[in-house]
Input
Amino acid sequence: MPKARLEAFSDGVIAVIITIMVLEMKVPHGTDLASLLPLWPVFLAYLLSFVYVGIYWNNHHHLLHAVDHVSGGILWSNLHLLFWLSLVPFVTGWMSENHFAALPVALYGVVLLLSALAFVLLTQCLIVIHGKGSQLARSIHGDAKGKISIAIYAVAIPLAFVRSWIALGLYAIVATLWFVPDRRIEKPR
Amino acid sequence: MPKARLEAFSDGVIAVIITIMVLEMKVPHGTDLASLLPLWPVFLAYLLSFVYVGIYWNNHHHLLHAVDHVSGGILWSNLHLLFWLSLVPFVTGWMSENHFAALPVALYGVVLLLSALAFVLLTQCLIVIHGKGSQLARSIHGDAKGKISIAIYAVAIPLAFVRSWIALGLYAIVATLWFVPDRRIEKPR
Amino acid sequence: MPKARLEAFSDGVIAVIITIMVLEMKVPHGTDLASLLPLWPVFLAYLLSFVYVGIYWNNHHHLLHAVDHVSGGILWSNLHLLFWLSLVPFVTGWMSENHFAALPVALYGVVLLLSALAFVLLTQCLIVIHGKGSQLARSIHGDAKGKISIAIYAVAIPLAFVRSWIALGLYAIVATLWFVPDRRIEKPR
Amino acid sequence: MPKARLEAFSDGVIAVIITIMVLEMKVPHGTDLASLLPLWPVFLAYLLSFVYVGIYWNNHHHLLHAVDHVSGGILWSNLHLLFWLSLVPFVTGWMSENHFAALPVALYGVVLLLSALAFVLLTQCLIVIHGKGSQLARSIHGDAKGKISIAIYAVAIPLAFVRSWIALGLYAIVATLWFVPDRRIEKPR
Output
């Protein structure tokens, strides 16, 4: 099967996810700075989640760019990734409306971790149908950045219960890691 | 008429449907497990509906993949399917906010049943314009999975008034049936 | 300029419009028929608006299908149409939450009328850049259905203040008129 | 990398942004003119923001039309633009629900200013990867309209604290400037 519709549907879902998050930023009732300022945690969380969803879209773009065809299993593997990403607005809202309390920050990390694992799974499924010797497989080998991210999430989640700011700092570090697009896939093209 | 725009519009509508359902998961006010746990029926219902809408997208993808061209009647037949799917967020919300009470669970089944019938109708309309001898027609013949699903829905809906969990179990069984993509259409390509 | 992106953007906007209307159908609090039944005007209005937005998508599809290229002016003419369509969820909600009171039903008709005029304007702009002798121009000539629709809206809007059901009946008649896709454009292809 | 998916994703995000703004127009409770009229600032703000988002979509369309290929950096530069645009519904809502008070009107201008700067940055990034001698670079040279817009925003934002209507008038003037599509890019094709 061609990959065009998988890309189009993923673009649509990710576009809606990244945009409806802004609905969490409820319009304040007052008109002065004092009524706007309490929104800063919501804005910060929105920014972090926007960057994260943006990272997933970028990486998805790079990954599918190196792909020739997809199968029925890939469609489900992709939906699995979109499922975890679709929970990002919920955990963003919960975290930011509670000033980054421990459990919401940890759950935010859990959703990031499960999204990361879903991306690895999608990558592996794509390698299976393209073959170990394919350009896709060679360009992924090692996947250090993916493994480091998952390790950092695994460390950050329990640390959220010590100091939620440590966990948030670690999430921000992972985001920075991925900010640079995945050159492994972009280069060989 | 070419099928590209029908696919693009369907992708857009299904992407919005699958994503706005998460807006039903209202952010809890507390920050402890005790305030998160009451959300489990909402989460479970979201998961079930995500899988169902995902199944429809997958099957729509497989079906249209085997299609050469569409007509004005197909556009309406497709909108008819999208109409019933667009009610999934509503019945999901009603069912999950009421802890799977009998009538909401039955109505959820009715929407699933009408969506399934709409998919059969769309398939038949496509076969009519492609001809009985077309590859599409041959690959659909029998459609055992579609008929079994409709039969199970018809049994599940009244059973919701006996025990709503029986109906939900039957909905989950149908979802599992379809989880495997429709190989009849995928294979001959 | 090619028309692909105009189609893609219009598909996206219309897909969001047609889907967010369902958010107006607020989940009822009870779980019995008595709590579901008061929703019938909301459901009926949703159905009517779904059909109307579906008609606009179908006609837009048919119109653009007969188009070769677009210009900067066409982009704005198309946005103008999308603007009026984007007000459909608002007037649908106002009308249905007030049991089809006179003013909301009239305003619903005004939005339908302005959408119809915007569609005529878009068609005329497309004819201007394709030339009077183009296939597009020939296939549109007369446009009886468009003119009849506009005349019916103009009659229905004041009648909403006499009996709102007369106006609604007229809106339904126009919808039925357009339910049959625009064969003038489909045929010559 | 080809530009198709960047366009598709941007279309999706902008389509959602332009459409969810209408959700800010809350359905009034009464059914007479007296209950509809208080909505005029919300409607006016919606119209202004619809035109602005429409302008960005049009300009994005024109800009990408002149582009051959994109890079990983372009993806981020584009997401940066979408981020500021995604805040338009929020500032529109804040401004209109407070009858155009000074600070909300100023913040609206800040979001417009940052969106304009993000568009300039995206344009510059595209010129960098296409080369100074490319058709894209030549068609942009000067970019008087972009510079004038940014200057007007910079003047309008502080003026919002003197009279918010002056700022709004200036925003409307910029919108009018851009209403005419960017012929510099359209022409040479």
Remarks:
- The mean pLDDT of chain A is 90.
